[in-house]
Each structure stands twice: as structure tokens, then as C-alpha cells.
Write a structure and sequence with these properties.
With 251 residues, the chain is an alpha/beta fold. 49% of the residues lie in helices and 16% in strands. It has a single domain, classed as 2-enoyl-CoA Hydratase, Chain A, domain 1. It is built from ten helices and ten strands. The strands form two sheets. A six-stranded mixed beta sheet has the order 1-2-3-5-7-10, with helices on both faces. A four-stranded mixed beta sheet has the order 4-6-8-9. The radius of gyration is 17 Å and the shape is globular. Bound molecules: coenzyme A (COA).
Length: 251
């Protein structure tokens, strides 16, 4: 458990489990403890019939700056063990049995962007920016993004995002199919929770079948997550990745 993730069931939005990043002083960078808490929350939601939709939110101006680079640096210098927490979270997200809605206001970096590839509806404020600087950090795409993103947005936009590290505005992310709607910054939380509550009120069995049909084969995504993780692990320990993490710490 960590208070950097808030898990709650807002009374105004019945049937919704909210998972909120709450580490604004570090731009909601995600630590190992945060991954563990999110994985536990996703598994608990699957097991609880009273929860019928999940919502992810960040804080004002920031969804998440991605993985905590201190944890990456620790793994780079030999700490090890980091990847399992990330994998457990990704498996729980990809296998989630209830619909997942996400709301972004501002920064969405690294896994703060790729998480939405596994959400069913994403609402972002007009000032949001999506960016995955994997290669700039001497890393490779993760979260099954190398499989899902090209299918969703085509090779060129997926390459621009995942390999070239180009930033996507909210409008560009919508055009690429990464997100559903663009709203004003003050509207993200309410719209995300209302959308999740609307899904939570639908006949759950029909919604589950519809969602499974739309999402397709999850085993294929899990297999790609594992393939990416093999490269990612090796890259984390490379001299060029370590240099990139140290450069961030020194800046
Ligand atoms: N890991 C660890 N700490 C992070 C972080 C991350 N991913 N992102 C931000 N932080 C920390 C900063 O070190 C800083 O801490 P400090 O106040 O103790 O110095 C604090 O959060 C605020 O960040 P700062 O860089 O001062 O804010 P900014 O508005 O100038 O820039 C970002 C915000 C997100 C653009 C910038 O911090 C950044 O590029 N972060 C790294 C993003 C990244 O590469 N993520 C991994 C993707 S795989």
C-alpha cells in the first residue's frame, strides 16, 4: 500500500472504482509500490461484483510522468526485481474484466501514455500531451504498445510516438485514435467519473461480452508484453540507459 495511489469508490458514482495517481510533487512518477497497489486494486475490482467499472485519474496538470526514473536507475545498477511489479500491473490491466475509463489532464509520459492503449474510453483535456521517450532513454516500447499502437494508429504515427519519441497533443492523440474525447481542463475528472458510472449502470454480462469482442485476443497482447519485457530488462542494464537516467538526475 502507498498513499501515492488513492483507491476509492466515490459515492456519487455508484459501481465505479477510482484509481488515482497522487504523487504530484514528482509529477505522479510511478514507483514499485504504486504498481503493486494498482495491480491489487485491479484484481480486487475483478473479484467484487459491486464494482462494475474502473476509472484512472491523475492530478491537476499531470496524469503521470511514467515510471520513476530512480527505480530504473536502481535496476540499471543491479537492484533487479523492478520489472515483475510492472508486469503484474500490466497483466492485471490487460486481463481486467470490467470496463476501464481514463482521464488525462496535462502530462502523460511513458506508461502514462501507453496505459490508455488498454483503456476502453480515454478523456483528455485540451492541454494534455502524450509522449513516450523510450528510445531517448535507451529503452524500448513496453505495455504491449509495439503491438497495439500500430494497429490503432498505423505504422507512421506509432513509430513517431514509440520510436521517435514525438509528442502528441490532445487533438493529435484523438485523431490517432489513442483517446476518445477532448474536453477543457476543469472537466476531466467529472466527465471521466460520469462516463465510468454510465458504463457501471449497464447490464454487466452484456457489457462484458461486448467488451471482450471489441478487445480481441488478450493472450497475444500478454505475449508481446513479455517479448518487450525481455528487451526492456536487457536495455535497463545497458550503459547507454544508465547514462540517460543519470543525466536526468543531474539536470
Ligand atoms: N521519475 C522520477 N522523478 C520524476 C519523474 C520521473 N519519471 N518525473 C518527474 N520527476 C520529479 C523530478 O525529478 C522533480 O523532482 P525534484 O522536485 O525533487 O527535483 C519533480 O518530479 C518535478 O519534475 P520537474 O522535472 O522539475 O518538472 P517539469 O515540469 O520541469 O518537467 C517532466 C516535468 C515530466 C517533463 C520532466 O520531469 C520529465 O521529463 N520527467 C521524466 C519523464 C520520463 O522520462 N519518464 C519515463 C518515461 S519511460
Amino acid at each position: 500500500m502507498t498513499d501515492h495511489i488513492i483507491v476509492e469508490q466515490p459515492s456519487a458514482h455508484p459501481g465505479v472504482q477510482l484509481i488515482r495517481f497522487n504523487r504530484p510533487e514528482k509529477k505522479n512518477a510511478i514507483t514499485r509500490a504504486m504498481y503493486r497497489t494498482m495491480a491489487d486494486a485491479l484484481k480486487a475490482a475483478d473479484a467484487d461484483p459491486a464494482i462494475r467499472a474502473i476509472a484512472f485519474l491523475g492530478t491537476e496538470g499531470c496524469f503521470s510522468s511514467g515510471n520513476d526514473l530512480n527505480d530504473f536507475l536502481a535496476a540499471a545498477v543491479g537492484g533487479g526485481g523492478l520489472e515483475q511489479e510492472i508486469l503484474d500491473f500490466l497483466y492485471a490491466l490487460v486481463k481486467a474484466e470490467k470496463p476501464v475509463v481514463s482521464g488525462v489532464d496535462g502530462l502523460a509520459i511513458g506508461i502514462g501514455s501507453t496505459i490508455h492503449l488498454h483503456c476502453d474510453l480515454t478523456i483528455a483535456s485540451s492541454r494534455s500531451q502524450f509522449r513516450t521517450p523510450f528510445v531517448d532513454l535507451a529503452l524500448v516500447p513496453e505495455a504491449g504498445s509495439s503491438l497495439v499502437a500500430p494497429r490503432l494508429m498505423g505504422h507512421q504515427r506509432a513509430f513517431a510516438m514509440l520510436a521517435a519519441g514525438e509528442a502528441f497533443s490532445a487533438a493529435e492523440a484523438k485523431e490517432a485514435g489513442l483517446i476518445w474525447k477532448v474536453v477543457e481542463p476543469g472537466e476531466v475528472d467529472a466527465m471521466t467519473l460520469t462516463t465510468a458510472a454510465r458504463l457501471a449502470a449497464k447490464p454487466p454480462q452484456a457489457l462484458r461480452i461486448a467488451r471482450d469482442l471489441v478487445r480481441g485476443d488478450r493472450d497475444e497482447i500478454i505475449a508481446r508484453i513479455d517479448e518487450e519485457a525481455g528487451h526492456f530488462s536487457a536495455r535497463l542494464k545497458s550503459a547507454e540507459a544508465r547514462a540517460a537516467f543519470e543525466a536526468f538526475m543531474r539536470r
